[in-house]
Amino acid sequence: MDLGLANRNVAVLGGSRGMGRETVRLLAEEGANVAVISRSPHDAAAAFDELAAMHRVRIICLSADGAQSGSVEGAVRDAADALGPLSGMAVTNHWMGTSRDFIAIDDAEWEEYFQNSLMAAVRAARSALPHMAENGGGSFVITSAYSARAPKSFIPAYAAFKAALNNLVKSLAKSYGPTNVRVNAVAPGAIRTGRYTERLATLRAERPDISREEAEAIMLRTMEMNVALNRIGDPSEVAELIVFLLSTRAAYATGLIANIDGGTDF
After folding, report:
1. Alpha-carbon distance 28 to 15, whole Å?
2. In angstroms, rounded to a whole number, what is the distance separating the alpha carbons of residues 93 and 184?
3. 11: helix, coil or strand?
4. What is the DSSP pairing of strand 257-260 with strand 9-13?
């Protein structure tokens, strides 16, 4: 299926690893030029150079910190200057902090969640949406989480700001719909990246007699996650949905919070 992304210019915030890196890979396969924006994009520069050469596209790496005012905004401007007008942007940065009970979270940690989760997306939207509106339209995709609708006692701040992102998506979709800019979110469940990868490695080291599938099922029960497919997802599976929403194939989708969680806590 042709997603209509060939020769389009797309920025990916948090594109150097995990779901973001897989999003960059799939965009390149579809023929899109990509600006990878993250705190350490050059860690994967060699791999991106190889990917760009393979698919005959441009991939540029730009450093920015979503928690710092002006940083992402500057990177988005640089991306447009280098590649041309942007037709899409994905916000895939994922900051989860440390699991802890509500009473243990002090003001400083709440502020970290605020800046890294909510404000990083706000800053990306504030720079990309007007740009796309001025250039005829586009697509903006934010990574939320299943926890926004099914919070747990041990991640109250994380879940609270993911819920705020869902609300923001609805507001932005209404604000920018008349300019032909679509705003959507994907809401992953347990995905094999970051904390889940670490937990899985620890569990399999403790119990080398069990398979990865058995270890994942144990992890899900421990995290109080009832997943219909009974497994942890792969970053590429989330990236597939992100890229679809960035594409012209999703031309009538906006204000969508798309669950991609293996059927978690319906």
Report:
1. 12
2. 15
3. strand
4. unpaired
